[in-house]
Structures are given as C-alpha cells and as structure tokens.
Amino acid sequence: MSKLSSVLFAAAVSAGFAMAAFASELTEIIVETTPVQAKNLGQQSGGSAIVLYSINYRVSLAGLDLTKQADVARLQDQIKTAATKGCKAIKDQYPLDSMSDEQSCITAAIDGAKPKVQQAINAAEKKAKS
Fold first, then answer.
1. Do the beta carbons of residue 80 and residue 74 sit within 8 Å?
2. How far apart are CA 9 and CA 121, in angstroms?
3. What is the reported pLDDT for 17?
4. Mean per-residue pLDDT for 40-60?
5. Element spanning 29, H or E
C-alpha cells in the first residue's frame, strides 16, 4: 500500500468513525488500533490527526443485554480480542516500523472504546427502565 493510499484510508476511517458516532442507536463498538508511535502526518482541517495507518474491528452488540454483568463482561472480552487482533495485524503488516510495545497498542485501543461501551450500557439501562 502506498503512503498516499494509507493516508487516504486513515482519513476515510476517521470520517466513517465520526459518522458512526452520530448514529441514534448504538449497534456496534468500533475498536480502532494504531501503533502507539504511529507516524503523524499532520492534521486535517477539523483538527484530528492524520495517522499513517490504523486497523478497525467492529464489535456487534447484537444478542447482548448490557443490563447484565455477564453480557458486559462478554462485550469487554470481544473488545479485547478485537484490539489484540488489530495490533497484531499492524505488527504483521508493517514489520519494519517500530510499534513501541504491542501491549500499549492493545491498551490504547481498549481505552479508546470505553466511552462507547459506557454509552451503550447507559442506553441499555435507560431502555430497561422505560
């Protein structure tokens, strides 16, 4: 993949992520993985950074009752699995680039998904009360 196509891919992913954030009902969590020391290529006009590469995995909320702790734990496991796969894929696809350590990549991806997980839990609890 050329540098330009990587940049365009990252920009498209960022735009898609922003649109998903405005969806009225959350049906999935997007787990975005990027190397902790990813190459920053500047900023978009909106202020978000342009990173050379990232990999996203979608974790579906279908079949989960997020008012139940067991299903919340299952979602968290699925997010950890997605983060691990994404960070490993980056390491495999870009073996010559330094990634810092893979665990930092995984932790950052999980932390990045936490606000959406909490949003989904809050929505499920609100729906259960009504």
1. no
2. 30
3. 45
4. 72
5. strand 28-33
pLDDT digits (tens, 9 = 90+) for 89-123: 888 887 766 666 788 889 999 999 999 999 999 99
* Beta-bridge partner residues of 113: none
Instruction: Break the chain into its structural domains and give their ranges.
Output: 3-129
Tally the C-alpha atoms within 13 A of residue 38's C-alpha that lie toward its C-beta: 24
The tokens for 120 are 């989904």
- Rounded to whole angstroms, how far apart are CA atoms 39 and 78? 27
CB-CB contact of 87 with 105 (8 Å): yes
Element (H, E) at 99: none
Provide the 3-class DSSP secondary structure of residue 58.
strand
**How far is Cα 130 from Cα 115, in angstroms, rounded to an integer?**
23
Check: CB of residue 13 under 8 Å from CB of residue 34.
no
pLDDT at 68: 96
Q: What is the pTM of this model?
A: 0.68
User: What value does the mean pLDDT of the chain take?
Assistant: 78
Tally DSSP H helices, then E strands, for the chain.
3, 4
